[in-house]
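Query structure, 637 tokens:
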């Protein structure tokens, strides 16, 4: 049989109703498929009763899987899990008995917080997501064929060149007009006219660091900025870029846009916030920290990080610690199974780009007045190499204290901090801060050298802030062979996750494939939640025995046409239900083999409420006392 179509259900204001409708359709289809299967195999009346006895447990498992998946989608889209009763997001059984007044109050507050969070997401972040959905479905791009990416490690065709535009700008709380954004974006294009495939636009101090802003993000200001950014990109390139990721941590804002031609190659998008400001634990404030968007591009893993590290000329150790905190926080987040994970650590991605106001300073030594004079004289003479010899970031890298292994393009521009706002004059206040290269773009390739710098420039014409915007243009060979070697360095959890995925690209959508793809491995580290061996009742021992048996005459995977009498498929034993078909030695889930001439285990009377039969299907065999469990992962009794 082949799939005849699909059902897409939309709801404008509620994910729960959409999920409920799809779940109902899915369960109805599963029941119909089971009945059709029993009919096609001409099962005896007893065997059909067994199949019907299995149906409630199978549907319950499917319903649980659907609920869990629905919560994962809700978390990714709305920022919260299902807030209705029966949500499986926590995967914890609900407490029985009455709850105390305090518990009920806490639950009410929690649901209120979730509802507000969802309202914010659906009200203010809908436009960007909808544009991305339309492009992914072909509305904006209309590719000839959109196919789901196979695995996290797929090469996607090998060596596709991707142009990255990576920018960082501390705007000092000022509003970025379209004119300023246009000048910044054009600055890189003057050095290299090729149209970027990906824009990674990072802001720091996007809002003033007031107590109010630290406690809550300014959503309206972010939306206005996004509209201006999108208008400028459309004006520059004549095409509407798609927002695939946008995340804000108080003043640290990261926007990632993808050119329409690349949309079909982008998968596994995830955005995260790591707060490193004042406070402890999960109560840390976001006055300092980082935002990140990771994705797969042509199968290669890309992580884009925007950060604002602690200030102060003598606080290099704090900057190093904050860098470590951001990396550790992302590593923990990527290691979770939620939102498409687990993913590699940010430093294990094929390409990790770390940009932002890193706040590392120039340290020439001596008194502050002497330092200022030395640096400003070198700037006037254009001796950038001399300045980099006293660069704090380079010194920390040489000492192995931060940004180990990260590369940076050659710096051929003057320090980008600190200016008198509205001018190109370095700090003339009483503090007389030493000019420094605070705004940087670095990248890490743990498994190769597929990224090449094209341009690295500062936009001196933008005067509104005390920092100058910085842009790096990078050419990256995404989907190249470096991912193959990277797999050997992947964590065991990541390798297990990749091994458990179905290779969708191996499926012939036109029905010309010689054999269907194999089912996911039941031995993966994450098989417990969606364990097909528990769902369908075949075990590792049974699979091994079936594999060593006589090869079937038809394809070995779950292939209904192969249900011919006498065939013994190896991967999924239910096809052996045909009359006279004997399951492979040791195979579990023997109930389907209860057809005429089949061999089965004894069944207790409880499994046959209609017929009240507990005798074995083979009259010559004595009845067994072992209960039949169609969902057991061990071999049949």
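Result returned for the query:
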């Amino acid at each position: 049989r082949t799939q005849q179509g699909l059902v897409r259900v939309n709801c404008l204001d509620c994910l729960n109703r959409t999920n409920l409708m799809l779940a109902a359709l899915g369960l109805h289809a599963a029941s119909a498929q089971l009945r059709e299967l029993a009919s096609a195999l001409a099962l005896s009346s007893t065997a059909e009763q067994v199949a019907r006895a299995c149906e409630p447990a199978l549907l319950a498992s499917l319903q649980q899987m659907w609920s869990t998946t629905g919560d994962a989608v809700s978390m990714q889209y709305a920022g919260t899990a299902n807030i209705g009763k029966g949500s499986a997001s926590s995967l914890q059984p609900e407490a029985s008995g009455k709850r105390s007044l305090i518990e009920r109050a806490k639950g009410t507050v929690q649901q209120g917080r979730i509802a507000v969070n969802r309202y914010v997401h659906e009200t203010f972040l809908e436009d960007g997501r909808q544009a991305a959905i339309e492009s992914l479905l072909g509305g904006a791009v209309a590719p000839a064929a959109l196919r789901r990416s196979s695995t996290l490690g797929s090469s996607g065709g090998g060596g596709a060149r991707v142009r990255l535009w990576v920018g960082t700008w501390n705007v000092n709380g000022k509003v970025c007009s379209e004119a300023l954004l246009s000048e910044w974006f054009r600055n890189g294009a003057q050095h290299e006219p090729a149209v970027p495939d990906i824009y990674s636009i990072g802001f720091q101090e996007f809002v003033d660091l007031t107590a109010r802003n630290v406690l809550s993000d300014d959503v309206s200001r972010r939306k206005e900025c996004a509209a201006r950014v999108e208008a400028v990109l459309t004006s520059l390139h004549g095409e509407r870029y798609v927002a695939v990721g946008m995340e804000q941590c108080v003043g640290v804002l990261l926007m990632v846009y993808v050119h329409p031609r690349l949309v079909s190659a982008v998968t596994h998008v995830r955005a995260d916030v790591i707060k490193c400001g004042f406070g402890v634990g999960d109560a840390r404030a976001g006055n300092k920290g980082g935002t990140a968007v990771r994705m797969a591009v042509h199968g290669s893993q890309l992580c884009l990080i925007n950060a604002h590290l602690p200030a102060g000329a003598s606080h290099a150790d704090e900057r190093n610690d904050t860098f470590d905190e951001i990396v550790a926080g992302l590593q923990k987040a990527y290691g979770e199974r939620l939102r498409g994970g687990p993913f590699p650590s940010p430093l294990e991605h094929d390409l990790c780009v770390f940009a932002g106001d890193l706040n590392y300073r120039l340290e020439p030594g001596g008194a502050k007045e002497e330092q200022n004079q030395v640096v400003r004289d070198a700037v006037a003479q254009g001796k950038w190499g001399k300045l980099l010899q006293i660069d704090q970031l380079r010194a920390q890298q040489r000492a192995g204290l931060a940004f180990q292994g990260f590369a940076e393009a050659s710096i051929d521009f003057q320090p980008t901090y600190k200016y008198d706002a509205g001018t190109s004059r370095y700090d003339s206040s009483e503090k007389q801060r030493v000019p420094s290269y605070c705004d940087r773009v670095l990248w890490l390739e743990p498994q190769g050298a597929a990224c090449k710098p094209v341009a690295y420039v500062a936009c001196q014409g933008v005067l509104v802030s005390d920092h100058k915007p910085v842009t790096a243009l990078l050419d990256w060979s995404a989907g190249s062979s470096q991912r193959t070697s990277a797999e050997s360095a992947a964590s065991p959890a990541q390798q297990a996750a990749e091994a458990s995925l179905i290779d969708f690209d191996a499926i012939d959508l036109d029905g010309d494939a010689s054999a269907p793809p194999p089912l996911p491995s039941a031995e993966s580290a994450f098989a417990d939640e969606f364990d097909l061996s528990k769902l369908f009742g075949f075990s590792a021992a049974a699979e091994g025995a079936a594999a060593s048996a006589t090869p079937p005459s038809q394809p070995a995977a779950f292939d209904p046409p192969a249900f011919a009498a006498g065939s013994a498929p190896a991967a999924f034993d239910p096809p052996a239900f045909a009359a006279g078909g004997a399951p492979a030695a040791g195979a579990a889930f023997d109930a389907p083999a209860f057809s005429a001439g089949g061999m089965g285990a004894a069944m207790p009377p409880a499994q046959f409420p209609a017929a009240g039969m507990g005798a074995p299907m083979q009259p010559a065999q004595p009845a067994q006392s072992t209960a039949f469990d169609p969902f057991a992962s061990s071999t049949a009794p």
